[in-house]
Amino acid sequence: MSSTIRLTMAQALARFLARQQTEIDGETLPLFGGVWAIFGHGNVAGLGEALYPHRDALPTFRAHNEQGMAHAAIAYAKANFRRRMMAVTTSIGPGATNLVTAAALAHVNRLPVLLLPGDVFANRRPDPVLQQAEDFGDGTVTVNDVFRPVSRYFDRITRPEQIIPALGRAMQVLTDPAECGPVTLALCQDVQAEAYDYPEAFFEPRIWTPRRVRPSEDELSAAVRLLREAKQPLIVAGGGVLYSQASKAMAAFAETHGIPVTETQAGKSSLPHDHALNLGAIGVTGTSAANALAEDADVVLAVGTRLQDFTTGSWALFKHAGVKLIGLNSQAFDAGKHRAQPLVSDARAGLAELSADLAGWRSPAAWTDRAAAARRDWQPLADAATAPRNDGLPSDAEVIGAIQRISGSAATLVCASGGLPGELHKLWQAGAPGSYHLDYGFSCMGYEIAGGLGVKMAKPEADVVVMVGDGSYLMMNSEIATSVMLGLKLTIVVLDNRGYGCINRLQMATGGANFNNLLADTRHVALPPIDFAAHAASLGAIAAKVGSIAELEAGLTAAKSNDRTTVLVVDTDPLITTEAGGHWWDVAVPEVSPRPAVEKARAGYEAALGMQRSVG
Questions:
Q1: pLDDT tens, position by position, 373-404
Q2: Which helix or strand (DSSP H or E) is residue 456 part of?
Q3: Between 20 and 30 A from 493 (CA), which of 175, 208, 274, 395?
Q4: Residue 276: is its pLDDT beyond 80?
Q5: What rounded mean pLDDT belongs to the chain?
Q6: How far apart are CA 181 and CA 192, in angstroms?
Q7: First-residue to last-residue Cα distance in the chain
Q8: One fold for both 4-208 and 217-377?
Q9: How many other CB atoms sit within 10 Å of the CB of residue 513?
């Protein structure tokens, strides 16, 4: 008969998490880097007490905002290429629902995070408890049901023994390259404290290593046939290249077969920016080099990308009449998009087998020569955009140039939303894999600073630079204090264009009036004189307002020797954006309007619609 140990459900959960391991570069490490926790009446007595004995092997970190700590956990997993991850626990009610936005971000970006919100009493004796939302027609509903559509796996633990199969399923999802995403285990607060005789075997250490699915013979043969027939092939490198740690395989494949490489937001840094075959960003925020070749490509090998609209120019970018897609992806859902030839496989394994079966084949020299010329033509345009003008307020691109000059390609750049991702995608010169860290799947305002914190936890020796606009800073900035508290030094550059400059430009481009985006165009009695530097200093950071690109560079240089998080604030022009590169993006313009500017924008929109490929 197997031996058992009597524990509460919460104690069993904590003990299980502390025993899960991974192996990276020959070193065995804890799979879970820790647990983020804001305690309340839904988790402090149960899970809080259970985590205490494991506080060394499974550290518990306290943050200042539930969404923020979940963003930090997600960024930690992304920076670790999904090889390590974190758990997040909250009380019931608003503490739990504050996690939903982060859950959606992880779901969209296919990133692992274990969410452990408290829940109501399973026994229902004290119903309704504090913060319980009652459904008049369904007694089983709680606010945690909002996690269902944004979780890869959802479970509610209403008996202590249920945690055994629930954790088994959770681990399969969190570590599977195809299913990967957020897992939510809603923990009824009375059940957290209930005991059960758990099998000791349940707590045996387990090492989780990446599953590398290899392509089927039929799909591999079909993909090889398409590539051998190609005259103008192109690679689109997505985030799956990084998560598979396939950067070397990608470089070898491109070099062996002479195929130019373009990068999505998630895939940027798959190749170093100075690699001869790297044409840089593709799509709406792409370089002119990448997009020019994408328009004429006859075979597109999409590796580890879900082919969202910014990558495909709303499916109007690939203009070759006979263009064929090959979807090399661990998830069949992505591999077959738009009638692509699916190649369901791990990126590293798939590229290796493709290369072996393509032995002796290279794309025509004229095509690779054209790629080299396009790359040479793009670089002066990028240099011009990032060079200081010393005339009026600087642009976002000029700020990027300053950070690049001082921090270099070795720094890890973190950003998420607004106009910055578009400029960074084109202009940032990424070095090592993972040195470009953006959420642009969900493009979530508020991710930046919390995400930077998670990246620093994953890469404590790295120079982590966070770029954030004033609007996103105001939405979520409290984890500056957490970074100071934990001794995790960040360099944060706040670009203040006094509103939502990116959306204001989009509003203007679609014929709209300047309305409700820049603070000056909102309904107001008086505009608040926001002192971002003073605010950041009040959270414990070293902070300063800089008046020019030269002052910014001096501040960035000084930040290198500062002993804690540094925040530099610079005013920027809300209207200037890099004109070079880019592509049309499908943003629906009203069919009718009393405003001539909207009617004009609609006519242009209808003309552009004709470029789109039909959805398959």
A1: 999 999 999 999 999 998 899 999 999 999 99
A2: helix 447-458
A3: 274
A4: yes
A5: 97
A6: 24
A7: 56
A8: yes
A9: 11
> 445: Cβ–Cβ under 8 A, 6 or more apart, which residues?
416, 417, 418, 471, 472, 475, 476
Quote the pLDDT of residue 615.
60
- Helix, coil or strand: residue 254: helix
pLDDT at 59: 98
Distance CA 485, CA 525 (A): 37
For domain 4-208, give the CATH number. 3.40.50.970
Rg over CA atoms, the chain: 25
Would you say 348 and 246 are in contact if contact means Cβ atoms under 8 Å apart? yes
Fold category of 217-377 in CATH: Rossmann fold (3.40.50)
Could you tell me which CATH class the domain 387-571 is placed in?
alpha beta
Amino acid identity of 344? V
Q: Which residue has the tokens 């070079």?
A: 580
Could you state, in order of their start, the residue ranges of all structural domains in the chain?
4-208, 217-377, 387-571
* Residue 374: how many other CB atoms lie within 10 Å: 19
pTM (global) more than 0.85: yes
| Gap between the Cα atoms of 372 and 367, Å rounded | 9
Tell me the pLDDT tens digit for each residue of 289-307.
Answer: 999 999 999 999 999 999 9
Sign of CA dihedral 311, 312, 318, 324: positive
